[in-house]
Amino acid sequence: MRAKHVIPILVIVVFIAFFLFFSTPSASHTDQPHVIINDHVITVELVSTFEEKQKGLMYRESLDKDAGMLFLYDDEQALVYWMKNTLIPLDMIFLSADQTIIHIAENVPPCEPLESNDCPGYGPTEEGQYVLEVNGGYAEAHDIEVGDQVEFQFDVEEEN
Length: 160
Hints:
Blueprint (H helix, E strand, L loop, with lengths): L2 H21 L3 H4 L3 E4 L2 E8 L2 H6 L11 E11 L12 E6 L5 E8 L19 E8 L2 H4 L8 E4 L2 H4 L1
């Protein structure tokens, strides 16, 4: 092959490689469950068993910036959460069965003392089916409000 033919071929190969690299969704949004609220993507740990729900984010010293824990219930019910043994402030976002935000407990501080059974409870006055816990202040920083719709990017049926 002549040199004048090699350069255009190299340019095409580089262009194709560049296009494929930047057009492929990142693994963090395709391999892990996530939710979307107002165009904000939150990678979530899914919690569905009784034991997982009891532990939740207890004893965690940090939570990634755009990460959270999503608690899944089989149907709508009264939901009350507390901060026993939780080390970081959280926003608790309560959702209805149709994934609409029905209540937000914002910037909930850890319960003191940590081992106390007298921690206050947080929750909506109406029944909900899902609870999303994220870092304290997340809802305010991202203009998340009651009535906003949450899009799940995983199969709910497979997780329950």
